[in-house]
Amino acid sequence: MNKAELVKRCEELGIAINPENIPKNDELKELINNKEAEIAEREEASEETETEAETKTETEEEVVTETSEESEEDEEAISAKEKEAASVFEDERGLKWEFKKSAPKTINIDGKPMTQEEILQTKDVMAELVYGNSNFLIQKH
After folding, report:
1. Are 41 and 75 in a shared domain?
2. 46 & 62 share domain
3. pTM of the shown model
4. More exposed terminus of the chain, fewer Cβ within 10 Å: N or C?
């Protein structure tokens, strides 16, 4: 693989690379291998968790079903409020802002790709977008 392909693979895996100081090919390959191994470990762990869940007895499943049915509505209401709160930014003036539906899911900020969620959690970046009248944001009433 050439350097451009290695950098692209790093981006696909979510490995942050400083564009001003791109590592050597060997270092990039090592980063990629480490990240792929980490992902493989996570997948194995999730498969083990799924296997454990499947081995529950029927009585345990019945108890879980009864309690989950009662609290399912509460969880959905709380979940919706949390999602809404996580997708809204309130500036110093008390105005609330959110990303438009047409806004890209990732945006390059100072050469670093950031998701909408990451941007919403970073007050400085959101303030720049709000006060810079970004076309990606809309005021929520």
Report:
1. no
2. no
3. 0.42
4. C
For residues 77 and 118, membership in a common domain is answered with: no
In terms of Cβ atoms closer than 10 Å to its own Cβ (0-12, 13-18, 19+), residue 136 is middle
* pLDDT for the residue 109: 87
Could you tell me the residue range of the domain that residue 28 belongs to? 1-55
> Is pLDDT above 80 for 31?
yes
For residues 51 and 61, membership in a common domain is answered with no
Query: Which residue has better confidence, 104 or 2?
Result: 104
Encoding tokens for residue 26? 């060997």
**What are the backbone angles phi and psi of residue 5, rounded to the nearest 5°?**
-65, -40
Domain count within the chain: 3
Q: Give pLDDT tens digits for 115-140.
A: 988 998 888 998 999 989 999 999 98
CA 133 remoteness from chain centre: 24
